[in-house]
Amino acid sequence: MPKPTILLALDPHSAAFCTAIKRQLQKFPADQTCLIQTYNLTWDGQTFGFSGELDQFADTSFDLAQTHSKQAYVSKIRTQFSDATGELQTALIELLKTASQSKEAIAAKRQGIEISSSHRVYLMLSASNQFARGVVFDIVRLIRWLFSKYFTDIPYSLEALLLLPGLFTQATTADYGAAYSFLKELDYKMISGVVITGSQKVPPFDNCWLMDERIGGLSDNLPSYADALAGFLTVEPETNGLLLGAQKVRGKIPAYSSFGYGELFFAGETTINRLSAAFAADIIMEQFLPKAEFTPEASRKCLLDAKGFVLSEDFSNAFLGLERDNGKPVWQDFNPRIDIQAGMAREYGMELQRAYRQFENKELLSYKRTLEKCCKQLQGNLTSFLDRSINRYVDATPRGLHEAARLLNILTFLYLELQTDAIGDQSQNLVTELRTAEAFLDSRLQVTIDKEATQKLLNQVLSLKLRQQQLQDGLAERKSEEQLQELQTTQKQLETAIADYRQALNAEIEHARQIRFMAIARAREQAEAAIVVAQNHLTAIENQLETATDNLDELLTEENRFRSQYLLVYPTLVTGALFALLILTGIFSQSTLWLLLQKFWANLVTYLLWTAVTILTYLGTVWLKYSTNIRDRIQKVQKQIKRLESSIKATAVELRRSYNEQLKLEYDLYAQNLRVEALNYLIKTAKQRTETLRQTLSDFSEIYNNLVAQRDQATTKFSEIRLTVLTDADIDAYYQSFLSTLPTEKFTQEQVSRSQSWKISAEEFQNQLMPFARQQFEQLGNLSIGEVLKQSDLIAANTANLRLNQLFDSANLLLRLQDIDANLSPTSQREITLWLGAKDKEQIFGFYSRLSRNLTALVAEDDQRLCILTRSLGFPGYFLSQIEYYRDCYERTQGEQIEPDENIPDLIPEEIGSGRELKLAYQTLLLAIALGLLSQHSQGDYQFNGRSIGKNREQITLALATEFTFQELYGDLQERIETYERDFIYHKLQELGTSASDLNHYEVKLLDHLLLEYNPLN
């Protein structure tokens, strides 16, 4: 049942301690710590107050030397605090209310958590701090008065947590003396009480818990002490506190107590975090981050893979599809349906030019758009092929990511020729393909690139590389200064040659681009000129055809006239003349006519033959004349016309072809640009993929480093108080055995392959990696601490027993006590309480019952945690093991105290104090110095019989009283002193008191006591 608790720090060191406790309390379940409130008493030199911001006032150095100059006198502080109590009442009332009315307490009640009605108030202070000493009793009185007036219905306990000087660094004698003075005053007030109301006196505290440097100082062991206090505050409330009895031991009230706390727990979440982080880190390192090999064989393989990439069918087929749309060629020749007509050559040229413009604006534009679409498909196909190649490369080996990045570097390396080792090696990559694509139209454009200079420099580079390799091989066999110098010279020459080659290659590439640019412009001009020439030629031929046609018309006219004249006119005239002659003959002489007719008729056949011969002769004469004067010229003109008509058709075809060539040139140039663009896009994509792979590797490296850091942070090294059943070494040993059953490649087989890893974000990859790694160890989170101790694969049997013993040892008291008078104080006997889970009770209790008879076992809800609380309740202050040293320091510094406390009884009973031995030894030392038995060297050393015994009189005294090696010397001094007369001794003591100026207050007091003892008058 949680109990409302207030922890109030009264000084800066206590505030720092409370801050650490508050931090450690956050590791406990909220229902155990929600009611624990921490505050600090503040003082700025004038006003007092309370604050929950402990960090602002905490002094984490735990160095007492830094507080010495800031200390104020107790009486002054008490006066100032008394004056401010009126103002502090309201603040303290609000502070006490928070114990049960805080937000945490209200939330706990709403959750049904049963809260104890009793309150606890702890005042933590450094026993040597003057400020805390000055205010503690007034705060006690004020708290008790407020509970008696305003909180009468609330049972409470007011307890002190005293931090002894040994917990701090640079603790001086004054600090131990101040602590002893406070313990004296506290012991006195625990008996006499403090005034609350009127004559009512009560002890200031219900219990006083003491802590010293049992496990070291606070500066080095703060987490351990904080864990002890946090555990002490969170255990069952009814086991805390003690009602002080009236029984005294040698007259001293048993008002003090001490405790020790130890905790052994199974840090299931930490264990799973460490294991899963280690497993995830190994998955990344073994499956994703192995470095690529940088051997000559690996380099050659990478060059061959790059060459295989650009020579593969997928790569070649992808470019074949650039000028094909759905399997059909994109380009269709310019072939308009225009027929040339006679005399229409000019119109034909105009129609052809109009068709050219229409083709240019429509079909050619459509072809370009189709090329753009095909280029996009080409880019997609190339990207897909590149990604497939990367995936195949990445999945091949665990080094795949690094090797893929290396392959992409080779594919996009501008100076690939420099990677080869021999002249004649034809390495290829995307850059060489780009250069080939840029030169695709060089033969058509009549472009010639002079590569002689770069080839010469490349041959020089390769020769120097070969020479360098030879020199390195020679040095490996036998070191020679001459060869070393030559190697250095060759390396410098190689660096120079490489730089020259790169510069020359860049210049060659730029020069080739300029030449191609001018060649393209020249090709366009030539295409346009060819069109003009063809058009002019067509016009000229048409003019010649028109002339020939006119000549033919003239010849045909002449032919018609010749035929009419010689075949119609002349024969008609001759026939008419004959008939006219016959008619005239008949008119003038019919007999003659009749005689002629009889003769003609009688010789009809002869006359017909002669007539036929005459006609044929005439016709032959006419044909001969026609053939020689007209027919040959007509045939020649007709042949010319046919030839010109054929020329017109040929020229028309040539003109159309010229237009087609010009259009095809623009198409080819556009396709060429797209081809180059596709390669540039692929190179750009490859570089992006390279950057993606590098970023992926960088992200994986960062994730790996974070996982290693998480694994290191998931440590089971908490403190000497809070121990884990499984140490880091145990967890790591279990992990090594786990790897043999679940290899790291399971993640790449079942969750994320390497080919998938570089395509997803680092966050998504980590979101899949961590659950997978964590899932392999989730079953460990449900184990109880007893089950963990039983599992041999987690912890060995002897180690399990060792852990239980370590828990028992860690729960020792945080205060060193001496066994003196333990039998007189029954309540101071140690009692041990063990908290453990129900299912592990028999196993754990059986083990610890063999170690302690006073063991009480209680069942806890958390079965992954074992807690041991060791207490020694109600012992007097002189049970402290160093109490004699405290008192000695107190006596040495008593003269420095402004507020003497001589009226307060000593903390140590007179009959058992060991201070008497120290006092006697100190008196013996002063007598020896006074009588000259001890001589002081010039450097300050005290010597006896030539033996140096030290400089510091306090240390010499302590050695005489406690060290075995000084006992003979101590006896000799006592024997020598007894040989002197008492009067002589008294006289020497007087001289010492007069001459010695470096005696401290305690030594002066002892000297006065000796003078009184050796006074002759006594």
Q: How much helical structure, as a percent, in the residues?
A: 55-70%
Shape: rod-shaped
How far apart, in Å, are the first and last alpha carbons? 69 Å
Q: How many strands in all?
A: 18
Which residue ranges are poorly predicted, with pLDDT under 50 across at least 5 consecutive positions?
239-243
Radius of gyration: 61 Å
Main sheet?
A: 11 strands, mixed
Mean pLDDT reading: 85
Structure explained in plain terms:
- This protein has 1018 residues and is an alpha/beta fold.
- Helix content is 62%, strand content 9%.
- Strands 1, 2, 3, 4, 5, 8, 9, 12, 13, 14 and 15 form an 11-stranded mixed β-sheet that branches. Strands 16-17-18 form a 3-stranded antiparallel β-sheet, with helices on one face. A two-stranded antiparallel sheet has the order 6-7.
- A hairpin with a 4-residue loop joins strand 2 (36-43) and strand 3.
Q: How are the SSEs placed, and which strands pair?
A:
Elements: E1 5-9, H1 12-25, H2 30-33, E2 36-43, E3 48-51, H3 65-68, H4 74-101, H5 103-110, E4 119-126, H6 130-149, E5 156-163, H7 173-192, E6 194-197, E7 200-202, E8 207-211, H8 218-234, E9 256-265, H9 268-287, H10 296-311, H11 313-320, E10 324-325, E11 328-329, H12 345-396, H13 400-411, H14 430-438, H15 442-445, H16 452-477, H17 481-588, H18 590-602, H19 604-713, E12 722-724, H20 728-739, H21 745-750, H22 754-757, H23 762-775, H24 785-790, H25 797-810, E13 830-836, H26 841-848, E14 855-859, E15 865-875, H27 883-892, H28 915-930, E16 935-936, E17 942-944, E18 947-950, H29 953-962, H30 967-978, H31 982-995, H32 1001-1014
Parallel strand pairs: 1-2, 1-4, 4-5, 5-8, 8-9, 9-12, 13-14
Antiparallel strand pairs: 2-3, 6-7, 9-15, 10-11, 13-15, 16-17, 17-18
